[in-house]
Structures are given as structure tokens and as C-alpha cells.
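Dear H.,

Thanks for agreeing to be a second pair of eyes. The structure we're designing against is below in C-alpha cell form, covering all 321 positions.
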């Protein structure tokens, strides 16, 4: 006879009881209503996938047939698989999801191992207006939950990637530069550039990335400087694309700030990247970006852009839930 367990849930997971569960469902319903009104349809991927869908952060196990499976670690990769297989060739696709992801190693960093998310993906639309649509919807999502004190920090990994290519930085140096930029550690960034990056536009442009975020209204001079220092056509194109996206997003009513040092991501972002912040939350409450090469992994190369919201962080702050 099995005795009832008295142990707490595994580290980095939680039980949601009664009012906590009700708040989560109310927040999910509010977001689902917003997403549906914006023309997005819901998809519900399975909680386990073939392991090659996800990166190294996924929990993996062999089934009895010897197939390597993984718990869902990322909704975007699953939506990309669905779009590239079940919905191949249908464009544009506006899809949304809600559920949990599980990531190995997250608990040790203070981030929940199992995270509750909701998000949207726009597949098959390549222009800056698609980026702006996603930015606007992400912003409206925070407002729909009753969050007034929020920030949306926008950048482009395309510019950083072009600078890395122009400076011929290896993998080790790229990681060190990215870490210094992420921490806005200008002394460390300057030291790395002076020691390991040849003098020129690429080095000077890398130093721009550690500057603090600027409001969209004040970012014009920063973008102009980034364009002047662009060491290649790819770098210039990335700046011009970001400027076009910001202009489109402004017309949609999104309040944004510009941070050319937003270089974080899951490794598949190719252009626009952004993070969402809310007063009272110790970490970003969401984020997203453009990932034009991800669907190609599943045999249907199409552009895509999307975002996800971290409901674990948002639900306690939400006024409408």
C-alpha cells in the first residue's frame, strides 16, 4: 500500500491552490480574450516532444521504445513545428498558447523550473509592420492585466551579430562581450574591445551597446550614431529596420524605450528583440523577437515574430485578476 507523500513539490515548482489558481485562470482568460480579438487562434501543443525540438535546457528521457523525448521547454519552438508541418504554407498565421514550460538548471538561478506562460506568434509576415503589431499586442497585454507602471525595452540582435561578424570575434569573446553588454558594464566592455577587437567602426559601435536605454523620443541620436558606425551593410540594415519598426509601433500607440544592448535570447532570434518589465517584478515579465530561421529547421523556412508572458511574475501584480 502506498503511503501519501508529505514532501513538497520539487525545487522550482509550486502547487497553486484556490485563490491562486482562480487568479491564474482569470489572467489567462483576460489574455485569451485579447488575443482572440486581435485575430490570433489558440493552439495546444503536447507537453512532451521529440528532444530535437528543444535546446539543451530541456529535461530529457528515453521512452520504452528508445526514443529520446523532452518535456516542453519552449512554446515558440513547438509553434514553429506546428506551423511548418500541420499548417505549412498558410500565411500569415496568428497563433497563441498558454501553459507551462520546464527548463533544466533554472531553479539554481532563482528562476522557477516550471514557468507558466502565455504568448503569441505571427508566422509568415516579414515586414516592420509585423514587428510593430507584436510589440503593440505585448504592450496591450500588460495593460489588459491592469499593470500601469511598465516598460518595453526594444533592441536588435541583428546589429550585434553584424558587429561580431565585422570584428571577427570568436565564440569565447562573443560570450564575454554579450555578458558585459547585458550587465551594462562599460569598463569591462571597453577593456575587452581595447585588448581583443581591432580599432575601427566595429569596436566603436560595440561600445554604444552598453549605454542605458533611452525613451523612443530621445533615441533618434543613438540610432543615427549606430548607423554612422555601422561597419557593414548588414549592420546598417539592422539599424534601419529597428527605426522602421519603432515608427510603425509609435503609430499603434505602444510606449517603448530603445536599448541597443538588448542582446539576450534563446539563440534563435535574428532581428528585433525586446523585454517587458513591470514595477514590483524582480525579472522581466515577458519578451520576444523575430526568429526568421527557426521554421526552416522543420522544413518550411518562413519569417516569424512573437512574444511570451511570464504569468508566474505577472499574476501576483495583475489588478484585474
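And this is the sequence the design step returned. I haven't edited it by hand at all.
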Amino acid at each position: 500500500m502506498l503511503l501519501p507523500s508529505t514532501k513538497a513539490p520539487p525545487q522550482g515548482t509550486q502547487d497553486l491552490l484556490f485563490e491562486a489558481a482562480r487568479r491564474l485562470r482569470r489572467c489567462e482568460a483576460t489574455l485569451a480574450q485579447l488575443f482572440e480579438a486581435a485575430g490570433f487562434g489558440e493552439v495546444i501543443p503536447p507537453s512532451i516532444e521529440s528532444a530535437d525540438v528543444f535546446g539543451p535546457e530541456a529535461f530529457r528521457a528515453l521512452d520504452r521504445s528508445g526514443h529520446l523525448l523532452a518535456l516542453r521547454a519552449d512554446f515558440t519552438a513547438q509553434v514553429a513545428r506546428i506551423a511548418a508541418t500541420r499548417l505549412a504554407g498558410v500565411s500569415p498565421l496568428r497563433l497563441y498558447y498558454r501553459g507551462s514550460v520546464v527548463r533544466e538548471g533554472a531553479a539554481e538561478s532563482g528562476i522557477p523550473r516550471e514557468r507558466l506562460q502565455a504568448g503569441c506568434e505571427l508566422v509568415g509576415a516579414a515586414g516592420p509592420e509585423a514587428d510593430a503589431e507584436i510589440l503593440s499586442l505585448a504592450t496591450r497585454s500588460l495593460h489588459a492585466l491592469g499593470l500601469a507602471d511598465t516598460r518595453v525595452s526594444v533592441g536588435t540582435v541583428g546589429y550585434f551579430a553584424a558587429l561580431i561578424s565585422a570584428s571577427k570575434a570568436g565564440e569565447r569573446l562573443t560570450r564575454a562581450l554579450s555578458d558585459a553588454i547585458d550587465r551594462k558594464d562599460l569598463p569591462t566592455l571597453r577593456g575587452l574591445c581595447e585588448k581583443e577587437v581591432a580599432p575601427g567602426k566595429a569596436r566603436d559601435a560595440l561600445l554604444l551597446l552598453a549605454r542605458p536605454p533611452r525613451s523612443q523620443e530621445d533615441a533618434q541620436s543613438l540610432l543615427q550614431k549606430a548607423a554612422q558606425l555601422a561597419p557593414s551593410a548588414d549592420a546598417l540594415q539592422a539599424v534601419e529596420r529597428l527605426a522602421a519598426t519603432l515608427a510603425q509601433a509609435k503609430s499603434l500607440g505602444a510606449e517603448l524605450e530603445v536599448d541597443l544592448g538588448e542582446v539576450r535570447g534563446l539563440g534563435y532570434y535574428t532581428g528585433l528583440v525586446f523585454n517587458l518589465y513591470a514595477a514590483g517584478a524582480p525579472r522581466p515579465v515577458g519578451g520576444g523577437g523575430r526568429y526568421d530561421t527557426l521554421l526552416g529547421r522543420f522544413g518550411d523556412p518562413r519569417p516569424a515574430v512573437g512574444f511570451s508572458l511570464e504569468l508566474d511574475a505577472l499574476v501576483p501584480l495583475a489588478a484585474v485578476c
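Two observations from my side: Residues 150-267 form a domain with the BirA Bifunctional Protein; domain 2 fold (CATH 3.30.930.10). The mean pLDDT is 92.

Warmly,
E.
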